[in-house]
ABC transporter
Amino acid sequence: MTLRKSSTRKIQPDSIMLRSGFIGGGANAATDEFLKSFQATATSKQLDVSYLTTSYHANKTTTAPLDDISQPQQQVVQEKDKNRVGLFTLLKYSTKTERYLMSLGIVMAAISGLCMPVWLLLLAQSLSTFNQIGQLFATIGDEAIDVLLGELYKLIYSFAIVGGITLLSGTTYVSLWTYVGEAQSLRIRKSFVKSALNQDMGWIDTHCAGGDPQELSSLASNSILRIETSLKRSIPDTLANLLASVGSLMVAFGLDFPLALFMFLTLPVIGIVVGVLSCFMRKYSGQALGEFSSAGSFASEILTGIKTIASLRAEGWASERYAGHVEKAQRYSVLTIFCGKLASGLMGLLFYLIYTFAFAFGTTQAADNIDKSNEYISPFACWGITLSGYQRPVDCGITGSEVMVCIYGVILCAQFFALMNPGLNAINLGRIAAVEVFGTIERAPPIDGCNDNKGEKLGKDFQENIEFKNVVFAYPSRPNDIIFTNFNLSIKAGSAVALVGPSGSGKSSLSRLLLRLYDPIGGHILINGTPLSDINLKWWRQQIGYVSQEPCLFPGSIRDNIAAGKDDGDATDEEIEEAGRAASAHDFIIELPDGYDTFYSGSSIQLSGGQIQRISIARALVRSPKILLLDEATSALDFESERVVQDALGKIRAQRKLTTVTVAHRLTTIVNSDKIVVLADGAIQESGTHTELHQLGGIYTSLCEGQGLTADATSKADVLGAIEEGTEKMDIKEEVAKVAVAEQLDVEKGEVREDSGQLEEVEDIDIAGVASRLQKYNRPEIVYTIVGYAGGIVVGCLPAAEAILFGFITGNFYKYNTGQELLDVNLPICLWFIFLSACSFIGNICMGIGFGVSGSRLQRRVRVLVFDKIMSYSIPFFDFHSVGELTTMLDEDSEAVGNVTGLQQGQRVQVFTCLVAGMVVALAYAWQIGLIAIACIPLMLGASLLQAKYASRDPSVQSLVSPETLLERSLANIVVLQAFGLRDDTSRKYDLALEPDANFKKKSAAYTGLAFGLSQFAVFGTFAVVFYAGVSLMLSGKLQFTDFFVALLSVMFSSFGAGQCGADFSSRKRGLESAARLFEVADGSMEDGNDPTSDAGNKPDSLEGKVSFKNCHFAYPTRKNNMIYYSNGDRDGFSFDIDCRQSVAFTGRSGCGKSTALQILLRYYNVDKGTVKLDGQDISELNIGWLRDQIGYVGQMPTLFAGSIIDNIKLGKPDATDDEIVDAAKAANANDFILGLSEGYNTDIGVGGSLLSGGQRQRVAIARAIVKEPKLLILDEATAALDNESEKIVQAALDHMQEANARTTLVVAHRLETVKKCDKIVVLDGGGVKEQGSHDELLEMEGIYHSLWTKQGH
């Protein structure tokens, strides 16, 4: 099936009406912004800045006594008490030009903010002029009226001018700051990545959780995004809102100081109420987002280990646990929404109560002024008393216009003050995030591998004599866990030295010290007598060719990956191909689609681990190193490829002087070493050649016996080349080429095809059908939905009702000649605000309960529905769709569905009702004004639609590899990146990958600014047009003042809702598109019939365990043209029979189909042709769940899940007793190390078992399979991750288990010593079975198996 591509938004529509709260809705507009702010910042937390207080000692080369080891290894930095940067420091990465632009933007933001108090003054003067017109009609002639009309028209023009100024200033400051903010954040992101890639490993170990450098990727994403948000509009928006708030308050105080003071003193009460509720909102929102985050992490963990989940039949467990996280998140989300709407309701209630007293008090003042008894003089009342020589016929006391504008001014002060909250929060979060980001950028690592000037360069002819002298070492993250104590080792130039020993003995630690990824805390590492810390590190690493145990490539072509080994990547094609041949990689590379130019994006082509390892070896060889450092470099190779590589290395050492240091578990790879050093407990236990150590009868002898090596293994290896030259049975080129096209990637390792990582865009979406389906899923909450709709309608009608009350009260100020008449009429009207306060409280509560419950439950239902469906898909689905895409869809698309339902739907209802009610009131009281307002709706909506349309576009140019992928792969392989000095090259590629999206965002700044400016102009422009029309109609006698003012206020109060309407419908459209993608997954099906949750199929009462493969042909679904099993000569595909309770081993070269046979038996895949039978019955006819219940599976890469050890073992048998669990652990040689952990079997092992070593994880996985008591046991390289001693013990336990309770066992292994006791060994080659028989029978054939056995030193 095909999924739609997730339409990631490159630009999120800004709240273009963010500062337009003055247009209506009273408390509700500001409260909604306040609610959004709290929801957006609920998860803000103090970032870890501990790294600023400590720095690992880099240059300590004196011998440290043991008593000093526990002393701190870090130095204190003076800035340790700093938890956020200063405001101007936040702008430190701006250029001089950008600072000029920001200054201009600040000026424009100030002008934009001051336009509001100017508008209030113009409104006050306009209302006074209306009053004067009424009076002059009765007392003075037409000449005076013409003069006043001229002044009134001037005021109308002034409204239009103010609108023009807001258009210019708003567009300018938003455009400038958006552009400059994007430029700064891009610069910061580039600098951060460049610095992070160069930080020393000690800093990474202590700074990142679990020492995982991927934490830096999250930091680059989350923290820099916060900085970016704070650098764009937050600062000028906050300034504009501050000036608008202060200016509106000053106007209010200037017009009516007593009334303004009374209202102002009541605002803290509202602030306290909202502040208390905001604490609860932050608490519940943080808990909700925490549960959603846990659900996302759990989903990622499960999907990464989907094959293990399938083998354990744990789909139901996974679904139940995922649903648990989502259900908790739903409950917290409901509480968050309820608290938010409760705050809105209380704010509305308090505001309307304030209105009641304010208008009553103001009416009293106006009545006193009418009766000439008011001695208070308004400072602003007489600002224009002389109009063309005519004296204002009234004194300068408090009039109705001053009362009305004063009340509105205080309201606007509160609203603009609330609107400062999102900006202040964004700035605060940016300042906190900047501490860690800027600290990383500015931190000069004490171990700097990119500094070309620091330290001594020994020259080209230096002798690479290496000496570890009295070295004391502990990892910075575990300072009390001493690895080496006064360790001494000498490595002569040109010699081959091998390091062997059990896991944890310090072998890899020596290689990391030699690369100077860490510095010892005591002693010296000397190169020709010079301390390594005194040598230029960049130069030193250029002398070393390093191959790590875990093979890795970086995004780019194979040619680029090999060339990366050369300084500055300037290797010639001849050098690259020569290195490829030496690493046994050339043959399979040229068989790839584009040869050496085949592009690797991290998951774009199917390369086996052995192939990637060979490319890594070629990368190390191309630089012609003087020192070759191989840390389990051939562990991922089959023995044929391993021998080819070993021979190549031998030839290189014969041609030129090459010092080789090898860390190995496979002793066959190091038997010819000049010196073999046996490490244990952090010290050298034995040292010598293979023959010398074997004769000692010590640790090394025991290791050799465990791998079947004899004292003369070196001589056998020496004659191997002659044996190969005399045989024509193996065409290496042919076999390696087959590997290139046949090896299937393992979804449990996170490896997927490039096309699987991207979901295709499907344009045709049935929007109506998707919306209808969402309503269907929401049907159980129909009562809640009705309650929510009722609340939204009530709250939406409040601005219109408010406009009616405002209009009548204001009109009455100019209608009556005595104060008592005014009091008698206005005071009863004021009491209606009490009714509105109750409506506001009840309506918001209904919205919070109704839409909160219905929306949150729908999101939970959709998330669980889709996850459950994903759990029902067979493995090919996960081959085509990456873990990242699926988890992103579950998280982001499910969240986007919230824009269609829930609180967002309530806001749409509220906005629509507000718009309709406002227009209806305007039409009812002054239909002419109503029609004009309706005609202006396109102007009000245009700004929102403009930005929403541009926001939906994607950059026209996309980078070949996303910057996220580049960073993820670089951090995952940071040891290799630093060892080869690839920081600058990787940073350059990362910068280029950022450019398309960054340039697109910069260009969008103009659209964002224009949209904001137009939204502001639309308000003032509409007001001017309506005001002009109203004046004309009033003078012609067609309209009364009160009717006009009611209609005017209705238009004003509804315009804010209209401005929000366009952006809201834009988010709704994206939400429906997200829902369509989710439903496509939920409705999908796989044609292979391997639904793990299905009850279809037979469930036999018993099972003997007889397996039969008959003429099987197979190719993986992602590469149907490359057959794994196929006809070859007289052989028709893959055929093989396994008797019940027989142990069978599959062996052969990489890509020959060993693991494939096991996956087919587990019904991960179906054969294309032929049959697979179990006890004579086709497995396709068996119930898939029953089948997997009979099989215990342990893969090469152990997959554990977050939780305790006992939780993981019980996945094999959920009802297992404690005794059964302990017995299984003992059988897997895991009981002893488990009991040694802090909490034994209840010890938490972290995500993916990250707190355990690889060998420990493998043993827990084996115990999980054993406790299942399966009838068939499948071991796919099950002991590959164990050291020799543990492997020997576990193998003995498995052998004992087979003897005690014989069962059919299928084993895949490269180490033939571990399978020689199997009843039958099958050698796969050329699309099927090449050889089969017992160990002795196969040796007698002297075929492929004999060759593999010989190559392992037997």
Q: What stands out?
A: The chain has a mean pLDDT of 77. The chain has 42 helices and 24 strands.
